Amino acid sequence: MKFGVVVFPGSNCDHDAYHVISKHVGQPVDFIWHKETNLSGFDALIIPGGFSYGDYLRAGALARFSPVMAAVKNFAAEGKYVFGICNGFQILCEAGLLPGALIRNAGLHFVCRHVNIRIENLNTPFTNQIENGRVLSIPVAHAEGNYVCDDATFHALEENGQIVFRYCEPDGETTAESNPNGARSNIAGICNQDRNVLGMMPHPERACEEMLGSNDGRDIFSSLTRAIAGV
Amino acid sequence: MKAKVYVTLKSSVLDPQGKAIKHSAESLGFDRIEDIRQGKYFELAFGDDTPEDAARASAEKIAKDVLANPVIEDYRVEIES
């Protein structure tokens, strides 16, 4: 089993992701520079957080044109796992691997704090190890995390079980107050129809050590590991 | 020859930045403004020997593929010779 962490100019959560995969997930992991076009040998890719291309034009818009992205699309089409976190989620939306878009937070502020997220679908490669009804405490850090999509896309997401995470209160109730950015229907993370591509705004790689306030993020990585192992 | 590309948020998409700018305008006393929407403006310079249709076609394609995100934004191209 081998993980790859894709590095764009301006990625800044690449080392956090690498650290979590090597130390806590305990699997081999390599950085993949964005000019790379050969992804053979990898089972899962992390598209990490940060400010690829300085967020110029729109967050994630220019990273889509990096040479590696054509390979990432093929990788996803083969059914292998692609996991976009924060800026990675923005990139996957811009690249058309996930529907919708992430726009400026409704409150205009950069929001950096722990949020609670509810698991809406336990039957995905990214959530299969999480108990029903569990609420995870995971930090967000973004200015453009306000998920938008048209009504047709939203209904398709709901019907197909593609809404994976929703912002909520500690008891699991979804409220306007628990939504840090104004995202439609409190959406914090979605997957594609085949469920092998997931994007989320919260940073599970920053929540894998008790010392950092939460290790709830580990359950997402252990789910993915289990999915890759085909257990 | 110049192509001007205007990118604006679709009317169905909330524009929190435009809203904040409107509040500022109101505090300056501009109370007749009903709405402000923020957008982006690009100038694409083409060589003088570029035919107008070719410049327009290129600008339209770049606007659609790069400058605007069709999920949330609309664009408009103007050619200035």
What does this structure look like?
The complex is a heterodimer of chains A (231) and B (81). Helix content of chain A is 22%, strand content 25%. Chain A is α/β, with parallel strands linked by helices. In chain A, a hairpin with a 5-residue loop joins strand 10 and strand 11. By secondary structure, chain B is of the alpha+beta class. Chain B contains two helices and three strands. Chain B has a three-stranded antiparallel β-sheet with strand order 2-1-3, with helices on one face. Chain B starts with a strand and ends with a strand. The interface between A and B is medium-sized, with 20 and 12 residues.
Shape assignment of chain B: elongated
Radius of gyration of chain A: 16 Å
Globular, elongated, flat, extended or rod-shaped: what is the shape of chain A? globular
Strand content of chain A: 15-25%
Number of strands of chain B: 3
Give the key terms.
heterodimer; A: 231 residues; alpha/beta; B: 81 residues; three-stranded antiparallel sheet; 35% helix; elongated
Task: Give the arrangement of secondary structure elements.
The complex is a heterodimer of chains A (231) and B (81).
Chain A: E1 3-7, H1 14-25, E2 29-33, E3 44-47, H2 68-77, E4 81-85, H3 87-94, E5 101-103, E6 111-119, E7 135-142, E8 146-148, H4 151-159, E9 163-168, E10 187-191, E11 197-200, H5 218-229
Parallel strand pairs in A: 1-2, 1-3, 3-4, 4-11
Antiparallel strand pairs in A: 5-8, 6-7, 6-9, 9-10, 10-11
Helix pairs in contact in A: 1-5
Chain B: E1 2-9, H1 16-27, E2 39-45, H2 52-67, E3 73-80
Antiparallel strand pairs in B: 1-2, 1-3
Short structural summary:
The complex is a heterodimer of chains A (about 230) and B (about 80). With about 230 residues, chain A is α/β, with parallel strands linked by helices.
